[in-house]
Write a structure and sequence with these properties.
about 80% helix; mainly alpha
Amino acid sequence: MKRSAQRAMCAGMITLQAVVLFLTGVVLIGLSDLGAGLSLGIGTGLAAACVVAAGTMRRPLGFWLGHLIQVGTLALGFVVTSMFFLGVLFAALWFGSYVLGGRIDRERAEREVLEEQWRAEHGGQPAAD
């Protein structure tokens, strides 16, 4: 069984986002009135959610959690305006990974079917590239 490109791309992207969101918690201390504990809690909580999402990409829960994390990242823009920019950026990267990874997986599956049909028609000989 081949590894899913969609899962790999989304897990990689959300792991990168975990690092940025953890550091966002530190930045929130200086740029907001939330206080150190709440700021670090928000950053650490979102980063932990990213790690859980990356670890559960084999099931639909991982993708749904990834979608919710994008909403949470965008919502941080109401606390620190610059997070709207990062939220849009990460949402675009997330949905790009989700859509393009799914397309790669579909095209890979279609190719495998066509190769199997070709092998059946040509007596198991590999296709010449």
